[in-house]
Structures are given as C-alpha cells and as structure tokens.
Amino acid sequence: MYLLFEVGSMMNGENVLIVATMKNEGPYVLEWVAHHLSIGVDGILVFTNDCDDLTDRMLDRLEQIAPVFHRPNPKSLFPDRGNWQVMALRYARLFSVYKDAGWIYHTDADEFLQVHVGDGVLEDFHSAASDRAGRFDAVSFTSIPFSSGGHKELEDRPVVEQFTCLNKPYARLRSENSQAINAIKTMYRNDVAFDLRRNHRPLMKEFSAAGLVWIDGSANVLPPQFTDGKDKAIDAIGSTELAQMNHYAIKSAEAFLIKLERGDVAGVSRLDSDSKYWENYNTVGDADARFAAMRPTTRRLLDEFAADPILGEMHEQSFAIHKAKAKRLRNDPAWAEMVRRLGLG
Predict the structure, then answer these.
(1) What does the pLDDT average to over 68-92?
(2) Higher-pLDDT residue of 276, 324
(3) Percent of the chain residues past pLDDT 70, beyond the cut
(4) Residue 5 located in a structural domain
(5) Total domains, the chain
(6) Partners of 21 in beta bridges
(7) In 3D, which of 105, 126, 129 has the Cα closest to residue 8?
(8) How far is the C-alpha of 250 from the C-alpha of 271, rounded, in Å?
(9) 127-137 pLDDT, tens per residue?
(10) Domain contains 6
(11) N or C end of the chain, less CB within 10 A?
(12) How far is CA 131 from CA 116, 126, 219, in A?
C-alpha cells in the first residue's frame, strides 16, 4: 500500500513522470525521491545500471510503498551496444506509466528541481508561468551547479543541507550584465510529436512552425533558434525566476572519488581521472542557503521512508558501503594522485 501524502499535479490533473537512470546512488535515493514527490511529481520511473550498493533494492522497496517504478537498464543485456542512458530513455516509452503521463521530465539523481513561487510545487510554477506566457508545451529548467563547499568526507545528511555554495558568482555576473551559460533539463508535454527525446531536451525541427511554445524557468518564451535546434544550455541570468534545477554534481571529495570509480551513468568518459570535471564544478561562487532547510512535505516523506524497517536498514547499509569504498580508494596507490588532487591525501 502506498504511503499517504498530498502533492500538486502539473495542471488540472495532467500528471508528471520523471524518467531517470541511476548507478550506485544508494545514500541519496530516499531524499531525492521524497523531494520530487513533494513538489508535485506524480511518478518516478528509474532504470538502474548494475548497482552494487543496494540502489536497485531500495527502488524495489520504494515501488511497493510509493509511485516509484524500477526496472533494470536493458543495456545490461547488450553491453556492446548503444549508450546506457539513451537505451533506457527509449525503453521507457514502452511502459504504460510513460504512455499515460501528461508531462515527461528527464533528470538525474544529483539534480533537484526547485520552484520559487507559491508553495514551491509544480502546480504553482505552471500557474505563474501560464500567467506570463500562456499555454506552453515545454519548459527548460536551468542547471545551477553547487560546489563541494570544502566538504571532504561523506556524511549521512541531506544533500541540500550540506551543500550551499554555488560554483559561479551569479550576483557579480548579473551586475556586470554578463552571461552564465549553464546546462538545462526539460519537462515537456508527452503528446507532442518530438523527433527525438533526449536527456537534456527533446528535438523537433518544426517546433516553432507547429505553433508550440517552449519557455525557460522565468517563463520567457524561447526563440526558434533554440526550440528548433539542438542547444543544451542557456543563460542562467534571467532564466531562474520561477524555478531552477539545482545540480549537486560532485558533492564531497569522497563522494566524487566514488563517482569516479563508478563511472558516468550515461556511459561516457567525462569522469575519467584525467578530466577537469572536479576543478570545473568546484570553483567558488555565491553562497546560497535557500534550499538547506528541507520542505516540510519532503521531510515528512523522508521520515516515513526512513521509518520503513526495510528501507531504513538498506539506507544505512548503502551509506556504509560508500564509506568503505571511500576508505579503500583513499588507501589504494592507483588512486593516490586523484586523492591528492581532491585534497584527501
């Protein structure tokens, strides 16, 4: 039986489905699920990639008590074919929960959508955005990355509470009338006949010609060169007034070390030890503690999840697995240089 909780839907009963892929996100799963259900997401469909930290088992348990749907990534059957994320997103379209969704939102386990208006739920975003832009068919939320904020070790505390330092000086950039080009993640109407549906955004060459409307997180209507093209980034200055997507890409130094060993969920090499991924995300920007206090509905859901004897125990076990991995990697000579670069040596 599902837990009882109140959420707001995107608009007049049009339900919102998150589609995500995960690999070894165990310590963060409960907070992430609780957050998105509390802001009005109606269902979460997750594909996992060969987890060894109980992420998959936690999602199996969540499926029994919340609107979460877990399936193994089909690429596990075809290791020599395709991309982990692309294959999962294509496979998702075969499920009834996907076909029945009013809106689709692709996001990752280190991303938290935040609504700045009303009670902070998607219904409030839709109402405010509709007042400004009228009916819209897609919205791209700007990614706002957070740095490690100097955190070195893994802590069993909420992500939003631990990390409150952005990686860019947005206030200064705004005062200088400068740009801050950041990635996007997009929520879109499921009944639109997009040519392709990708992780950052769908593609449709004739989007504007069809009279469809695509907005950003400030409800600015985006131009045809964006909507009909392939851009996966927009200017963060001026695009986050109503909502934004907080991105905790690196978390602590130990968490990033584990992420490096795990590899990228998309199956690409951005995280290899020679990359500048850590340095790029760990720059010092503005302090932003607006999200450190968890929303009451999120806290209630998270407490219910933690009180479940199966989920609570698996969360503790998963965190212990991650701590053990961090200790092993910190003492492994093969990782010595990266340990030094992360300030863990």
Answers:
(1) 91
(2) 324
(3) 93
(4) no
(5) 1
(6) 47
(7) 126
(8) 11
(9) 999 999 999 99
(10) no
(11) N
(12) 15, 8, 9
